[in-house]
Amino acid sequence: MHIESIDAFSFAMPEIRDVGDGSQDACLIRVRAGGWTGWGECEAAPLPTIAALVCPMSHSACKPVSASVLGERLESPADIHRIAARVRANSLDLLQADHAFSGVEIALWDLLGRREGTPVWSLLGAREALPKTAYASCLFGDDPGQTYAKSRQARAHGYRAVKFGWGPYGRGAVAADRGQVQAARAGIGPDCLLLVDAGTVWEESVEDAALRLPALAEADATWLEEPFVGGATGAYQALARRAGTVSLAGGEGCHTVHQAAQLLAHGGVGYIQIDTGRIGGIAPARRVALLARTMGATYVNHTFTTQLALSASLQPYADAAGHALCEVPVEPSALALAMTRERLPLRDGLLTMPQGPGLGLSIHTEALRPYLVEAEITVGGRCLYRTPRWE
Ligand SMILES: [Mg+2]
User: Fold this and answer.
1) Ligand 1 centroid, distance to 263 Cα (angstroms)
2) What is the pLDDT of residues 187-239, one digit of tens each?
3) 226 alpha carbon to ligand 1 midpoint, in Å?
4) Quick check: helix, strand or coil at residue 104?
5) Ligand 1 centroid to residue 245 C-alpha, Å
6) Residues with a beta carbon under 5 angstroms from ion ligand 1
């Protein structure tokens, strides 16, 4: 079969708030080939991503992403690898290309899995899909009282691990951050894993991050996530040497395998967190998962949006043994909740891996319709993009 169409859709909540909740909008990709349909989601702002799919060629290494995919043969995983290489060569200088292709690549795997009647993880070579220890991924409350209430709620839902991030953490006094971490630990109790996400707040300041380490150790935090911006590998390494019992986690911003490999080799991270919606899709994420195993680091998914993105993010390490951790967004927007008809089963804090063909989920067309954002891109009087029919 050959790839007949790539359709991109922008969805958004009626109001986009200035908070760290990335589920307020969504860029959904639909690919069709040989009578089959596959779906994927980019972890990216929808409109710049759609532009990267359709923009006019700027020069030979700056072509729209769709041009390297449309019409290509799709019969096996090898074809997806070949198409990814075409995109890399043809869109080398288009910064949004990796984010845009991520959704396309995920849709290609979904489509191929549906045609073969097998889950994507099986197509990747995994023999089994083991349950994951879900961690409830929350934003810090505005104050310790709110954080305490959220942590009690996560625990009441059976989670065995809880993460708090963003919000006021790292933006004020060291003592205030300590109060937040203490509230989180008090709420979840002593037998639950506590994870803390600084959301790159200290940019590259090792000293600012190090000031928070004693409180994290005192609260027995398993990891400190993204103390620094992506690429600040030296700062990661310097902090890792001082972090004692607290591991460093990072990598969600990686948009190539090579960036993740750099962080693993030179950043001293104990946990590498990859978003399939950013790194170029499922195949490069699988490469990082296998690489992490050889380097003594633990692979963890990153996802903060829909169940579709969650399923895609789990495929690369489906066969990771030992109840590996996985991030589960617990405060998704109404839009994110509307994306799929099904939810992945979660019982007693354990998430069952998707077992159905492809990503194992179906898009809820009617529920999503109210969030569709109609858009159009016209260049020199020629329409390059208009929101496709939603059906
Ligand atoms: Mg994070």
Assistant:
1) 15
2) 999 999 999 999 999 999 999 999 999 999 999 999 999 999 999 999 999 99
3) 6
4) helix
5) 20
6) 197
